[in-house]
Every structure is written in C-alpha cells, then in structure tokens.
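Tip: read the tokens left to right.
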C-alpha cells in the first residue's frame, strides 16, 4: 500500500513539474514587458507604411474684403488656393530606410529582453534546486543530531559523556532549526521571485544538476549576433541614413500652388512653384551631427564587444573553477569520508573508537555535501550570466 501511495505521489509531482526551458518559453509568451515591445514593433510597421506618403495638401480661402483705409469698390476679390508639397530626389526612400532601421532596433531590443529574462529564470530556478537540496541535507543532519543527543544521554548514564556535551548538542539542534526555517523562507521567496518574472506559478522544477566545463570557443561564437550588438549596429546605420537625409533636404521638395480668384469683373488663376533655398546651411550642421553620432555609436559598439568578451571570460573562469571544485569534492573528498564512515561503523569497541565519532564524521560528510552545493550555486550563477553575455539563449 505504501509503495502504491509513493508511486502516485511521484507521478503527480512529475506531472506538476516543469523544465526550465518550458518555463522560459511560457514566460516569453506571458511577460507583459515583452508584449509592450511587440506593440512597439507593430507601431514601427505602420511607420514604414506611411514613410513614403506625400504630405497632405493645403487648402486656403482668400479674400481682400478687409478695408484698412478706403473702400475697395469693385476690387473686392474672393478665392481659394490649393498647394501641394511634391518630394523630389531620394528623400522618401531614405525616410523609409530610417523607419526600417527603427523597426529593427525594436526587434533586437525585444530579443535582448528575452535573453535577459531567460538568464534570470535560469538563475532563480537553479538557486531553488540547490536550496532545496541543501534543505534535504540539513534535515538529514538534524536526524544525526537527534541520534547524537540520544547517544550522549545513554553514555551519560555510564559516565562516558558529560552534561556539557548533551547541552552543546541541544544548542546545535536549535541553531540548525533556525537555519532550516531561514532556508525555507529563502526557498519560498525564490519561488515568488520566479513567479514574478515568469507569470507562472511553479510548484516543482524538473531539472538535474549537471556541472560541466565550458570552452572559450563556445562563449565567443555568437557575440557578433548579440541583440545589444545588433541594436548599436542598426543605430549606426540609422545615423548614416539621417546624414543622407539632411543632404537630400537641401533640394528635396517643390511646393506647387494653384490659386483661383474672382471679383465682379473677372475670374483669374495663379500658379506658383516654390523651392527651398539652403542659404543658412542648417542641413550641413545636422549632417555633421548625424555623422558624429554614427562614429560615436561605432565606438560604443567596439567597447561593448570588448566588454562582452572580457565579461564572458570572467564568468567562464568562475564557472570552470566551480565545476572543478565540485568534482573534487564529489569524486575524491566525499568518497574518502564515506570510507572513514564505513571503518567507524565496523568497529564495536568503545576502547578503539568513541561512538560519537561515528555521528561526528557523518556530519562532516554532510558538510562536504553542502560545500559541493555551494560550488554548484557559484557555477549556476556564472552560467546564467553567460547565457546573457554570450547570447546563448534557448533555440
């Protein structure tokens, strides 16, 4: 009966569990901030559609009926004027290109936010897994303290243990209870933090701890396609287009006006054509500014690539060192402590080994398990950062 209950419990746990990649996918669908950026892309699409449209025509109603000195008698006139700005040259094509660059910037900004969200979900998820594992170890440690207290009480009757040893064990149990309660709060808060950014209520994470070294080539292969890099590239190209637009603005449009007037004696029409005169050379100044902005953005791009490479190397060094430490503890130190534990358990004589040494060594073994988890936590903290800085999101 117990086996059946355990099997049904494990089955229900697995059904409610979610992998980290599944959580990332669901979070990207539900995140409100990402939806806002998606709407910005829709706005950018509309801007592209209207970027090549002409300006609206102007309709003017005219009269000279207002008298300032003498009556105008038969010279009173009424009329209408219709004027239209007609673009010439490549101005509209350049404006369309700028609008497309704005859309691309929004797209890459969205990808950057997705990557940032994924890295944060990985960090919170693995923190939860490690804290839960630590909690299990401390619970086992708590049972050992109960055994140790019971053992001291038994030995105390035969004057083989002191009262202070019993009291110190009780103090250790109380300290451990505080640590367990604090750890439980940390786990609950980590789940709430994960729910806050993912918009998903998570009960269980179905993922295993697997610490593997990462090569330098892995973290540098996708740097040039990092969303932040692409944003700066698009901004640089946009500023170059703005410089072209300022140059095109010198003779970019012609204003055609058709006027119809009438008085008591006759009707007549006027046609006028107006072109801009770049006398004050403001376009030249704006062109220089745009080119300078493009150069400055290129400098920022090189600085970003420099920082991404170095930041990745820093996290990579930390990650690989933690993986190495974890493996050393798990494959070398812990097996030795297990061997010592078996030796202690094989002795029955109080003259050779004190019974409490058995419990003490077992607690030391659990402490090394906790040290291994601390290295795992460092590993996954670095791993989550590498996800973002190396542009290694889920595909």
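Filled-in amino acids:
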């Amino acid at each position: 009966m117990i086996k059946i209950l355990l099997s049904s419990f494990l089955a229900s746990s697995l059904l409610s569990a979610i992998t980290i990649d599944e959580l990332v996918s669901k979070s990207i669908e539900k995140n409100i901030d990402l939806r806002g950026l998606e709407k910005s892309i829709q706005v950018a699409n509309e801007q592209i559609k209207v970027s090549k449209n002409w300006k609206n025509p102007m309709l003017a109603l005219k009269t000279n009926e207002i008298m300032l000195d003498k009556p105008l008698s038969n010279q009173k006139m009424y009329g209408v004027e219709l004027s239209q700005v007609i673009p010439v040259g490549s101005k509209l094509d350049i404006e369309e290109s700028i609008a497309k660059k704005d859309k691309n910037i929004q797209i890459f900004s969205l990808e950057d936010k997705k990557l940032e969200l994924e890295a944060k979900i990985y960090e919170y998820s693995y923190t939860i897994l490690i804290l839960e594992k630590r909690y299990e170890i401390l619970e086992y440690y708590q049972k050992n303290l109960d055994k140790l207290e019971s053992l001291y009480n038994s030995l105390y009757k035969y004057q083989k243990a002191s009262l202070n040893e019993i009291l110190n064990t009780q103090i250790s149990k109380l300290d451990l209870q505080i640590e367990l309660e604090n750890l439980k709060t940390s786990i609950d808060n980590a789940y709430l933090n994960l729910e806050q950014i993912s918009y998903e209520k998570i009960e269980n994470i179905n993922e295993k701890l697997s610490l593997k070294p990462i090569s330098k080539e892995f973290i540098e292969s996708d740097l040039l396609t990092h969303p932040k890099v692409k944003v700066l590239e698009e901004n640089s190209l946009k500023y170059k287009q703005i410089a072209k637009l300022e140059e095109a603005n010198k003779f970019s449009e012609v204003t055609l006006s058709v006027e119809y007037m009438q008085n008591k004696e006759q009707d007549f029409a006027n046609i006028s054509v107006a072109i801009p005169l770049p006398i004050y050379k403001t376009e030249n100044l704006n062109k220089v500014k745009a080119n300078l902005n493009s150069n400055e953005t290129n400098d920022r791009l090189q600085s970003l690539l420099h920082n991404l490479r170095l930041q990745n190397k820093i996290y990579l060094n930390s990650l690989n060192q933690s993986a190495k430490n974890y493996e050393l503890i798990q494959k070398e130190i812990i097996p030795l402590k297990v061997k010592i534990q078996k030796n202690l358990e094989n002795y029955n004589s109080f003259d050779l080994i004190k019974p409490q040494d058995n419990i003490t060594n077992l607690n030391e073994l659990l402490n090394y398990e906790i040290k291994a988890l601390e290295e795992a936590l460092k590993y996954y903290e670095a791993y989550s950062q590498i996800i973002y800085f190396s542009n290694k999101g889920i595909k």
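The longest strand covers residues 78-87. The beta strands are 17-18, 58-63, 78-87, 204-205, 253-262, 267-274.
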